[in-house]
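pipeline stage [seq->struct] | target=DUF421 domain-containing protein | organism=Filimonas effusa | residues=228
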Amino acid sequence: MKKEAIKLSDIKRILIGEAPFEFLLEVLLRTGIIYCVLLLTVRLLGKRMSGQLTITELAVMILMGAIVSAPMELPERGIMQGFAILILILLLHQGVTWLEVKFKKVELVTQGIPKMLVADGVIQTAVLAHVQISKDQLFAVLRGQAIYNLGKVKRVYLETCGKFTIYKFKASKAGLSVLPPEEGRDNTMQQVKEGNESCSVCGYTREVKEAVASCPNCFNNSWEWAIL
């Protein structure tokens, strides 16, 4: 479109565009057909597409958004092109899934492996940095599971689909508080464990009488009282 043809007073162009008014009815028909085909395609892709998405499934969802827009909106494009591409995406996805089942290396390349973020109440700082998750994000997940200190956490895994899996100790143990700093240490959800302190970076907990100044896990020198 030429620059001279663009006018703010051209309400018809702004609301309807260059296509004739009748094309609006065609858009409704196209959208209905594409919507039904898209539902069928997602159904054939498998139940995981409606749950937690893996990397390959997320890629498929992004592609489908781009695929269906043109056949619905552009008058010079037929909907059969959209059908053909959706079928191709379905075949590609099924092929990759079959390869993942047959060959472990393919699954490792496409999906990756779960990462352990917390082990026995101690944050694995190197892993946390590798997966690009902040300590605040991890603490938010733990608070959502009614966990108020790291001492209660046996393991935290980041699954390949992005979901967190948490295992707890049965008995209460002292550890680093996961509550926001402004919450303070005088609330009813936690109490100070006398004689124990936790590394403020990774949560490693020790007795105060230990002579070593730095944390043996992350070599940090900042400590705070352990919380029950």
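stage status: PASS
auto-comment: Residues 22-45 form the longest helix (24 residues). The first strand starts at residue 115 and ends at 119.
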